[in-house]
Design a protein that fits this description.
Layout lengths: L11 H10 L2 H21 L6 H6 L3 E7 L6 E7 L1 E3 L2 E5 L10 H8 L2 E6 L5 E7 L2 H14 L2 H8 L7 E6 L3
Antiparallel strand pairs: 1-2, 1-5, 3-4, 4-7, 5-6, 6-7
Length: 170
């Protein structure tokens, strides 16, 4: 995954697709469909693309977490922002009122695996960004995907967590 284009600098098609995802009806639709399409497209392209990344130009990573209750390992596609050797994922849950399950999985079991477009699986360790670090990463995320601002407005009963996935300590 290379550095992501800011919303301002991307092409008109990507702008429309990114903007549509911030609306309530499209966020609902995408929340219920995209992950089902992204997984097979990721496999068919040998880990280079997802359906979401093709439609939006957004950076999508495959995150594998261990279930907080079940202990079962699950892999899902998420928008992922590179920050040096770290990957940042934002637990927006498309603006729904609750945090996504993967957020709770990472809090209980911070060891995870990330596959960045076309790369090998990387062992990572997750933590929730706070204070200035969270604010910086959140602003950076909004430059790439302004839909998170709409999600933030709808998720009025929670502050959307920003998770940092850092290389696992050896």
């Amino acid at each position: 995954m290379t550095a992501s284009q800011s919303f301002r600098d991307t092409n008109p098609f990507y702008k429309v697709m990114r903007a549509s995802a911030g609306t309530a009806p499209m966020a609902w639709f995408y929340a219920h469909t995209l992950h089902h399409i992204d997984r097979p497209v990721f496999r068919m392209t040998n880990g280079r693309r997802t359906f979401t990344s093709m439609l939006t130009g957004l950076p999508v990573v495959m995150l594998t977490t261990t279930g907080a209750k079940s202990g079962i390992r699950r892999t899902l596609p998420l928008l992922g922002l590179l920050d040096g050797d770290r990957v940042v994922v934002i637990a927006s849950n498309y603006g729904q009122h609750g945090n996504p399950a993967w957020f709770y999985n990472l809090r209980k079991n911070p060891e995870c695996t990330v596959v960045v477009s076309g790369g090998a699986p990387r062992q990572m360790y997750a933590y929730e960004a706070e204070g200035d670090e969270r604010d910086r990463l959140w602003r950076r995320g909004l430059e790439i995907y302004p839909g998170w601002a709409g999600y933030e407005k709808r998720a009025t009963d929670r502050r959307i967590p920003v998770m940092v996935l850092a290389p696992a300590p050896r």
